[in-house]
Amino acid sequence: MALDARQKRRITILGSTGSIGTSTLDVLRQLGGRDRFDVLAVTGNGNVDLLAAQARECGARLAVTADENRYGALKDALAGSGIAVAAGRAALLEAASGDADWVMAAIVGTAGLAPTLAAAKRGADIALANKECLVSAGDLFVQAVSEGGGRLIPVDSEHSAIFQALEDDQRHAVERIVLTASGGPFRTWSREQMADVTADIARAHPNWSMGLKISIGSASMFNKALEMIEAKHLFDVRPDQIEVVVHPQSIIHSMVGYVDGSVLAQLGAPDMRTAIGYALTYPQRSPLDVKRLDFARLSRLDFEAPDETRFPALRLARTALTRGGLQGAVMNAAEEVAFHAFVGGRIGFLSMADIAEQVMDKLAHLPPASSMDDVFAADEEARQVAAGLIR
Question: What residues does NADPH bind to (predicted)?
């Protein structure tokens, strides 16, 4: 969305209390804060103390908690501030539908789908950190962005890297998209070793500081599996053009290979603020206080093929891409249910992929989605099947 350079940019942050949301607020602070940005709304879930503190600091007009039971606590925390307070799903959708021209979509899980879609339909530029929008409803979401007239700018470090390495006038010459993966904390572990890990062990990522869901998704490589599906919709490539390579140092964030043999890569220290800052000021770049690479001290950059026997989520992503239809939504919903069961100690680490695969096979007959109702119906059915398998 084109803006007059003299205008403040109107910002809404969906999921401000998570790791992406807090990093977004830090980027706003670095790039001028209230002098340059008008924060219309910040939203969170249960952490209303942090949400209130964020709203006060950035001068948000509205603070929304998705948890209706936390409305009173949030209202008390913001008493006397002049900041409006709301709670619940309807309030979340209203905040997303507001008059922001740039929306950070950082609500984790399927809960972020409806509000992000609402922002896209209104025509806001979407800084996309929510995977489910494209994994569960890729074609419908891309269509909504196009019809709304806004821009879709990826914030995941991998997709941001591809976005930056794509030459606009050479899209026809793209041969392959190469997503890099750190390999997570279990890159060198055997399946036998992984069978007994706990959530506390799985959440300890070697390179990135992330929330629980994303950290465990990295450990199981389900995050990378979802990113494969996202890449298809973001960059309009065929499934066979999407590759994954394990790169433990997380310095090369992803690459684009062209038909002449050239490969363009985006490099940087592991810090989500770089991708967030690029999304916020695109197509310009603004100075950020993040770590710079010292190439003289980079002793090595390693690469290896991913082991789909130890990390079957990658194989499941290829299955979903091949089958098409609602398989992405089914895979994502089943994984979310399995994730909560793993965190709750009801299933083992390796069982998450087993459950997702069984649910995908049981629901492989579902036709392509013609509306968001179809997506939500498939999501609910997949959750019920997964829950039954876990019981």
Answer: 17-20, 47, 130, 132, 211
The residue length of the chain stands at 391
The distance in angstroms from the start CA to the end CA of the chain is 48
For the record, the structure tokens of 282 come out as: 């695109």
Q: Is position 18 annotated in a ligand binding site?
A: yes
| Main-chain phi, psi angles of 104, to 5 degrees | -85, 115
**What are the backbone angles phi and psi of residue 245, rounded to the nearest 5°?**
-130, 140
The position carrying tokens 């939504």 is: 329
Query: Which residues, in sequence order, are bridge partners of residue 178?
Result: 243, 255
For the stretch 198-218, pLDDT in tens is 998 988 766 655 678 888 998
* Strands (DSSP E) found in 25-168: 37-44, 62-65, 84-87, 102-105, 125-128, 152-154
Residue 220 is assigned to a ligand binding site: no
Residue 291 annotated as lining a ligand binding site = no
65 is known to lie in a ligand binding site:
no
The answer to whether 130 is annotated as binding is yes
With 0.85 as the threshold, say if the pTM is over it: yes
Predicted local distance difference test score (pLDDT) of residue 168: 85
* Residue 357 annotated as binding site: no
Query: Annotated binding residue at 47?
Result: yes
Q: Is 257 annotated as a binding residue?
A: no
Rounded CA-CA distance 380/391 in Å is 17
Neighbours of 384 (CB within 10 A): 13
